[in-house]
Amino acid sequence: MPKRQDLKSILVIGSGPIVIGQACEFDYSGTQACRVLRAEGYRVILANSNPATIMTDPDFADRTYIEPLTPEILELIIAREKPDAVLPTLGGQTGLNLAMALFERGVVGVPGTPELIGANAEAIATAEDRDRFKKAMIEIGLNVPDSGVAHNMDESMVVVRQIGLPVIIRPAYILGGKGTGIASTMEEFVHIARNGLDASPISEILIERSIAGWKEYELEVMRDRADNCVVICSIENFDPMGVHTGDSITVAPAQTLSDLEYQLMRDAAFACIRRVGVETGGSNVQFAVNPANGDQVVIEMNPRVSRSSALASKATGFPIAKIAAKLAVGYTLDEIPNDITRMTPASFEPSIDYVVTKIPRWAFEKFPGTSGILGTQMQSVGEVMSIGRTFPESLQKGLRSLEQGRFGLNCDPAEKQYDSLSDTELLKKCGIATPERIFYVGEALQRGFGVEVVHGATQIDPWFLDEMQMIIDERASLLGLSLADIEPTHWRRLKRLGFSDAQIGFAVGAIEHEVRIAREAAGIKPTYKTVDTCAAEFDATTPYHYSTYEDETEVRHSSKQRVIILGSGPNRIGQGIEFDYCCVHASFALRDAGFETVMINCNPETVSTDYDTSDRLYFEPLTQEDVLNVIAAETAAAGGSAPKVIVSLGGQTPLKLSGLIPSELVAGTSPRSIDLAEDREKWNLLCNSLQIPQPPGGTAATFEHAQKITHEIGYPVLVRPSYVLGGRGMQIVHDDGHLQRAMQELAGFGTLGKEGGLSVERPVLIDRFLEEATEVDVDAIRDSAGEVLIGGVMEHVEEAGVHSGDSACTIPPQTLPSWVIEVIEAYTKSIADALEVIGLVNVQYAVAGHTVYVIEANPRASRTVPFVAKATGVPLAKVASRVMLGATLQELRVEGLLTLPVTGGHVSVKEAVLPFNRFPDVDTALGPEMRSTGEVMGIDRTFGRAFIKAETAAGTLLPTSGTVFLSLADADKPAGLVVAKRLRDLGLGIAATTGTASYLERFGQRVDRVIGKLSESHLALENAIDLIAQGEISFVVNTPQGRGSRSDGEAIRKAANAHRVSSVTTVKAALAAMNGLAEQRDHDVEVRSLQEYHGR
Amino acid sequence: MTQVPKKPVAAALVLEDGSVFEGELLGHQPENGIASGEVVFNTAMTGYQEVITDPSYAGQIITFTTAHVGNYGVNGFDNESSRPHARGVIMRDMARRRSNWRSENDLDAMLRMHKLPAIGGIDTRRLTRLLRDRGSLQGAFGTASESELLTAASIEKGTSGTDLVSSVTTKKPYEYGSGKLRVVAFDFGIKTTILRCLAEFATVTVVPASTTATQIQAMSVDGVFLSNGPGDPKMVLGAPDNIRQIVESGIATFGICLGHQLLSLAYGGGTFKLPFGHHGGNHPVRRIASGTVEITSQNHNYCVDPDSLSGVADITHINLNDNTNEGMRIRNARAFSVQYHPEAGPGPHDSRYLFAEFIALMMEGK
């Protein structure tokens, strides 16, 4: 069936900000969809609130709406653009939920409105409504675990009595397993069921017999209009049932199913997709298998492209989202050629001749108070994928891809931490699913517990454990050897089991560099194989490679000039999709300019690891060994001419490697300049020589020294380790006691070591903290001729002290006098010159009174580059990549790549999105340590309206009625007075704590309810927490006191978080919100596309 | 206990073109350190036990492209015949430990029990690319010297022009199942899964390949089944004439794989050898009647030339990868056949409807 001619324009719904459970995999799928649909000649309208995405680049759609993803806003977009169809299945759970909301409003999917393509409302409801899904599965003869549905606690109790404990509780219409949990006692049950009912947008939970410990599988299925069905990939979870699949280590293809069992599962998956009624596109179906007797049950299915389908696409080379988009407009699988073989159709099932392992990455260290135990609710913030010819090789490559200071499955310095554990403690740790469990399992096998015992403790399949045991056994073969003793066949065996040079060095007492030399002398070098969907049965044209130790390498020769772009590795807090955006843009720009681009990355969610983003893709860990190997392979393939390497676009990951690769290969700013900006002493000298003020400060390695500094500069001070990302470990310290604690924390080998920079070896930076200063961020580009382009000046909404990644910011600045902006621009130019930057530089400033202080400069792409590009229309990352390879800004102007920024007429606000709803026991107050997972952008004619859009997009529920609760630090009370006035103007009630209330009343602001502090409960006043719990508060403004006990405020913020009452924790944000609300009252909300803002 | 792994026995694979692959010996230690045959590759990711025991691999050395083999062990149920008929097995990695609730033994133990040599640690991807580009090659592996292995590979005759069916067919007729219909199944190397599929509706009499049409006609049957089997269809002497007589006598006839090729030969069709054959579980086949695509299990080196059947048969199925013939129905007769394996074992179940079509064809005559 050819493509549909009755459709002309299609609205694609994106997935919004990066949150836990929904990350850049939907940028990958959405970008593919937009490209495909445009190539097919459709007019594409895109709605997504996330400015960091590649899909919201104005080149990818005819109309790009960076607007809040709410039904109201989408309705406005639909009314304005009148699309023929809406494609919701590539925008994650957000896309599906919006589609359902629009359907219920009668705006789509009913006659006279845009058609829902991909999945219709009926199919979405069948898959997403737990009870309907279960009934549908029973109807077609598939097994499901015993279960019942409940809508309130009374129903829940009835169901649990019928099924019996333990049970698993799953809320309906949620993503990433939010609100899900396993209960073994009634107490746990009541707690989890209540949370689950809260988490479900329709207050519905499924209570189901727990099958924790069973084996878990997933099949990625596609179906077309002609009812052709194929399985793209089978995935087996390393972690048994009980851990959310997003938090599980997973392996493709499935390893321990015989053909008979696999085919029954395949039949069941097809029956499932047919019954649910997904007419076209991709779905994933999850199964659990009882290891004792092979009983198979269906767990769930997603009627859409998912995180797993991104993984499956990267694991097989079959582009699920791209094909799904084509199927949605009417093609059938056999009409679409397989991209990789080109000669065969897409109506087939990929066969793979390697093993893929996915390992999640968590950020528990950022959320003190969380247990760090994995369960049925997803908590990871990113993941890596690795490809090896065997599972052991793939596993070890994956573990070193995580960038957490590990070189593989133990056999590295970090394993020392297990020495102190007794055997009993160790086995106990193996039995609890945590991020560290895999290493504990390795240690248990190393100690000789054996596969059976470890299986008994973990329920991990014995096949996986024995493959790990093979790694451990091979390590033993190195006992007592030196490098010179290792025979070539022994080297090959070690490398084939995935041992890194660093691990081998650790085992034989040599440094990594010596290992490399010895290994290469023995003739052992990696070969690069190709991911080709067909296990080499057909010739592949797509150069998508992975390393392994075999006979033959498949990298093709070519003499074009090559540029290697180092990607940003797994998503983590502080380093995510923004950097992927920069890498991808660099690849696009350099390909256009005639370079051959080579991407190295290990993150399966990204656009950068799409095999057609660059001329060649190496799916490899971003470690020194693996990167040097690719450089060597590329050099060999080019007949000895070495490639250039871009290290400054992928965040901290490639930057850390910049000193480890030959400096003459680094494109753009030299590694020496990078070090100049990072090294505190050198940086201070540079600022002094430029006469640019810095906050007073110093560096210290001991508490005594730190104390000496603070006595000179005075409290409060900002304390932070050097060479870290996302403000990891950063604190604002107010007194000696706090300073002592902070220094102790930083000195210890704690979680900081995981970021790779050992803080013990690097001094702690101590700076005077500028209270009430305004923070400003600048992104600029300097070229080899010395011209500096100011990309954007961003004023932060929150005051200094809140990490820039967690703060809202605005372009253009709203409160800075023009002379301040001029000073900032001048400083930026002179810093860029002094650092001899060639490419991007980000400089942070704090403006206090009449002084502009420079805080730090980073000669690399910053998190804000995509936001600036979308706010101004200037493709900063593309320009920077060309500049790094020698072009001047003037040349790029002539070429037309560099255009003038679009100014005037609109204001752009970036707001951070924080994951506190996943971590209910965490204080939500913002601080110098970054904790946001993603960001959104609001764009409108005025700051107030743009700010409201940004808040709405971020999920903040702004008050339109009811009572707002104010609890302010002393310093914030004057501004709080203005907030209170605005609240009154908006007709909202005011509740305040005694201190805040008496201040407000002194200046004539009436307070409706005076609320006692928790410690004042004896005064018989109303308690803030009770009021929040009773739903009497519609919004909370709670600013933390600078010093002293934070417990009161913390309890209030937690209560607000737990009851889903939005709160702001800075008075500036409260002011901005109230001003925006006041403005909005007088205007209807309007939507406009980026193309219109950019005048295109 | 951690232990230093026992030192593997080094072995090599040498192809007739002189290519050498280093690996380690697995399974049975071959006579004189040499196992030889025609090297083919199979891209299925599950079902190694079924593949190894499939009689159609007689005379061949099977290369598994999938990385790990042996993970879920072996069991009594998954055998496609009583013993392997292949000459050897090549793989990248043999599991040291099996894990599956149905598993009864290790794959390696099964290979040794049936005296089937194997070689592991091979860069099977390099081998597959070579076979893909050069076509099937003869090869030899084992612990013998490279020159001895090269000699062994060079003198291998290959499957062309060799009668392999007589070595795998049953010596005596036997019955299988107790269904209502009566089916006679020619055993050219029949797979157990086919028998299971037939037995769902028929009492099957499995007969030697040499059984004559006259003998069949004497048996009062509802249908005749022509099985899969190894090698060159032109070497199954007598079968085409025999089959033509059976079909012309009006008996409903269904053929799979070699059975499909023999039915074609019976009606004057031609067959030819594919460069490296189809061996795997992911080939897309179009069912022309509905236009739909089924994912199929495939295992054949020879192929029917559809042009040679024009006017005699209608093409019912084609392979979407290379447009080769995958099925036909003889005009004005009650006979149809497919090149691929609707019974699966191993492979997808998308084409099991063909057995229902066989039932329908037999019922027409009732």
Estimated structural class of chain B: alpha/beta
State the helical fraction of chain A.
Answer: 25-40%
Sequence stretches where pLDDT stays below 50 over 5 or more residues of chain A: 749-760
Apparent shape of chain B:
globular
Q: What does the radius of gyration of chain A come to?
A: 28 Å
Strand segment tally of chain B? 19
By oligomeric state, this entry counts as heterodimer
Helical content of chain B stands at: 10-25%
Figure out the total of helices of chain A: 36
Question: Termini of chain B, distance in Å?
Answer: 68 Å
Feature tags:
heterodimer, A: 1096 residues, alpha/beta, seven-stranded antiparallel sheet, 36 helices, 19% strand, globular, B: 366 residues
Structure, explained:
- The complex is a heterodimer of chains A (1096) and B (366).
- With 1096 residues, chain A is of the alpha/beta class.
- A seven-stranded antiparallel β-sheet of chain A has the order 14-13-10-11-12-15-16, with helices on both faces. A seven-stranded antiparallel β-sheet of chain A has the order 31-30-27-28-29-32-33, with helices on both faces. In chain A, strands 17-18-21-20-19-22 form a six-stranded mixed β-sheet, sandwiched between helices.
- In chain A, helix 17 packs across helix 18.
- By secondary structure, chain B is an alpha/beta fold.
- Chain B contains ten helices and 19 strands.
- Chain B has helices spanning 48-52, 107-113, 124-134, 146-155, 165-168, 192-199, 213-217, 239-248, 258-266, 353-364; strands at residues 10-15, 20-27, 35-42, 60-64, 68-69, 88-90, 93-94, 117-120, 137-142, 174-176, 181-187, 202-208, 223-226, 252-256, 270-287, 293-305, 313-319, 325-330, 335-338.
- In chain B, strand 11 (181-187), helix 6 and strand 12 form a beta-alpha-beta unit.
- In chain B, helix 8 (239-248) packs across helix 9.
- Chain B is globular.
- Chain B starts with 9 loop residues before the first strand and ends with a helix.
- The chains are: A alpha/beta (1096), B alpha/beta (366).
- At the A-B interface, helix 8 and helix 15 of A face helix 3 and strand 15 of B.
